[in-house]
Amino acid sequence: MSIYKLGGTPLSDEEFKKIIKEITRPNAKYLMSAGQAYSVFFEGLRRGKIIGTYCERCGMIYVPPKIFCPYCFITLDKWVEVADEGKVVTAVASYYSANMERLKEPQIVGIIKLDVPGRTFTSYRFPGLLHRICGASLDDVISQRIFDARVKARWRPPEERKGDINDIECFEVIKT
Amino acid sequence: MKTNIHVKNRVAIIGAGLTLFRRRLLETPQEMAWIASKKALEQAGMDFKDIDCVISGSAPDAFDGVHMKGEYYSEGAGGFGKLHFRVFVGGGTGVFVPIAGWWMVASGLCKKALIVAEEKMSSAADPHPQAVFRHIWDPLIEKMLGPNLIWIFALEMHRYMHKCGVSKEDIALVSVKNKANALDHPCAQAAAKISVEDVLKSEVLVYPVNRLDISPVSDGAAALVMVSEDVARRYTDNPIWVAGIGFNLDSYSWTNRELAYPLYLKKAADMAYKMAGIENPMKQIDVAEPYDPFDYKELHHMEGLGLAPRCKAAELTKEGVTQRDGDLPINPSGGLLGVGNPIAAAGLMKVAEIFWQLRGEAGRRQVKKPVYTGLAQAWGDLMQVGTVIILRR
Ligand SMILES: [Zn+2]
Fold it and tell me: Which helix (H) or strand (E) holds B242?
């Protein structure tokens, strides 16, 4: 059957380099506005606070905040400050940068389920942030001790803050 | 066919074709679309002039480096002067293209559809095709933390391991199986005879993900011919019917939800099962091609699809149930791990595999047991979309 007839011409890295006709690097710089919800969130970070929005209908707290509840389809205008502490729901150790360059030491990152005083959330919907985790070893990740570890935001000094997510240096393990 | 919806035409697949999947191909996106389309048409016994609509799919434009790449490659898929559109749901695209083809033919908008998926990842060469994925994140928060794509897979894999008590060894078995299956696939890029130990000893990229847990970067294209029942009867004695389709999207806010279980995929699968009249997928699906860009994803997706009880897919794998000669063969093609991962084309390759399996045309890849009903599935966007198609002979 002809369906198994091979189609296409494989190239080695060397052959590929010989036939390249176009090298292009799009020079498109994006200047992105922060939007209504994140503007408040970023201003909060500058002051050392983590701010979310609250849906009165389903009880969800959004961190990072949204001005709408995507589950209830209503506009949100109630702001709430959540703790700068929480629990690790998952964590990994990365040996590669964003551009896939090898790192000397692995970087530990994870998702932090943030505490909201007086409220609990299921593991299906919760206010959670992706961030670096510090004070944990590679072995803490491999042994899974890092799961459910309590972590607290380590803030940059106020004068160094820029009003973005990196105003938090990392979430530091305070108890495993 | 039991169905909960009214369709004007039953839809059949009557031909499928693939290019080679390779790290770098000489061919342009247009040429790859042409080669895959020709092969699918050849099997169907048709020509481009017989086709009345062309439905295509491809992942982010940034890979090929051509914005509006659907318009660009459509020339190679015979799209001019016809109904043509491109669909996109990230990694889920490959199975979403035949879903879109199904609704075009089922609704009566066209009768003879060419379904094409293409990906030319090698063009995004410097520093690495993976770098394109830097731009899929929330630009204002996550991107500023410098993530790479493997982070999110690793975070999901580790959460799944933790919640289900699954080990890296258990997961590596999937890679071993799929790469071995691919030895029998003529288009395969990453076929190999490897051991669990090879996987565990390969370079750690983002713990718990090692290099051999991952599918490769690929160029490639795939195509299908989908037609209405009356047309199918004229062209073949062996049509394969689309029995059900399903798709579902969860929130883009992936840090706000449970990663251990793909709820959106369960919803997509339930939609397809209802349409196909399937109440017990573990018994009623004979062969499946769940999406496996990473080895743990095969297990994760089997559970989302209801092909394994929650947290039990690893056990079934260990018992050999998912081997080609097992009770429920999973990824007999070799999957993305073995055949390769030209994103949209890889998803469509899975649908082609189920088509060939149900026709008894999979050659050395043919599963041992008789098969009547098969399923293909893809997954993508920011870990938030499931796309499912069920075929029947
Ligand atoms: Zn709500």
Answer: strand B240-249
